[in-house]
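Handout, page 2. Input:
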Amino acid sequence: MNRTCHNARTRPWGVFAQALPVLALTLATCTPGNVPADLLIAGGSVLDGTGSESMEADVAVAGDRIVFVGDAARAGVRAADTIDAAGLIVTPGFIDMHSHAELDADHGRDARAFLYQGITTVALGMDGFGSAEVGAQLAAWEEDGIGANAFLFVGHNSVRAWVMGMEDRAPTGEELVAMQALVRQGMDEGAHGLSSGLFYLPGNYAETEEVIELNRVAAEYPGAIYDTHDRDLGAAYPPFGYLESIAEGIRIGEEAGTKVIFSHFNAQGAHNYGRAHEGAALIEAARRRGVEVAGAHHSYSATQSNLRSYTVPGWAVDGGDTAMVRRFDHPDTLQIIDAQTREMLAIRGGGERILFADQRPDLNGRTLQEVADEWGMDAPSAARQILRDGNASVMNLGLYDIENIRDLAQRDWMMTCTDGRDPGPTRPVTHPRAFGSFTKKIRDLVLDEQLIALPFAVRSMTGLAADFLGWTDRGYIREGYAADIAVLDLDAVEDMATYENPHQYSRGTVHVLVNGEFAVRDGEATMALAGRSILRGGAAYDGRQ
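Output:
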């Protein structure tokens, strides 16, 4: 192969406070003169994922790989298809480090909500709810087709529920061995690590030592990650402690010997506004002593979870939902539950801050307080009435502080996530984060506020995540890497989704390639299902773990 060097012109996008030093793009090799590439992305400003300044360069793709980065005319690179990227930004496809994308559902398989943000890869099995049957899921995605790449974690909540149900107690020795076996099954079949949701049930019933013992199993596998929705981001009941919860998450990874990532990392509740730097200090202290610990966040001030977790103390759910309802019907027990529910709602700003994103049409788009007022009862009573018919999806408005978001966005270990799902048309009101998280970060924090530089933001969405995951052929614009590529028009970048009208795709994403195939071309989704199931280490699933 004839190797031809190129002169690429640096474009100074990083004029803001977080601009990183200018680094040259790796000089790439071109395709042989007599073998054209499939696609040439010509004349774009390439941000390669390293955090360095953009450089004007052409990018050639053959099959599912990037085969050239440089001056195509000078190198004699030809392609069967060419798109003009002059005036546009060319980046690696974005990696959503905490997602709930519904790739198994007909409405979510194409991943359009994510692709229109430039996202080409999503992490699933989060908050401790990933199945141990990782291989079956990876195989199903390969057979059915998915619009974006996806990778999995095996979940602590899932394995605990499988072995112990919803019991509030420590496991027996035999039960611990059974849970360890399920974690090992998931890791053997390609999981990237163990996820936990210690805020949720039944995970909240576990002591720290239980999670460490399960994470030790994950640690037997090179590159394993402990991903945690930690026990108390600041709004848990009873309080465990915002800082104590971060320390617990770090300890679980450090003692077991895995990497650690804090999901949707932020401080929750008005009492924690302005405190993100305290939590960040714990992470940075751990990093200084050699623990590979990081976080991922989005730029919205609302959370989304479920009504039971926000309004019923964990002890009242011991034994499951049927046992919970029995406690509702016991007058003395109900008095205690009611008092604690009031305390839980106070932490979250009251019933007027709890907005239903549920599929039940009589709830969707209304606050808990509005429902309670209509029913002629108080908010705790309305919550219990709803829970008798099953749990409900809710948002908690204003739980995150914008100043905390701004602080965390500037940390060089902070990745980006949506924490979102596109639930389809049955839920007119849902959290907009599935449709706009990455776009919103660029629009608000880079372009409007000029808080962080574009190369820094793009790295948080690409190379930083790939490096943490231990992948060696995704996350960068480099020769030989997978052709997961986003092409953006910065003048048009806009997150359109709102809390009132969330089902709106982001604008400004002109083209998206997933494994070399157009998923979005000229601003329109192609409906291609070019995503791959990604095993731990970064290889695509081929039927063999």
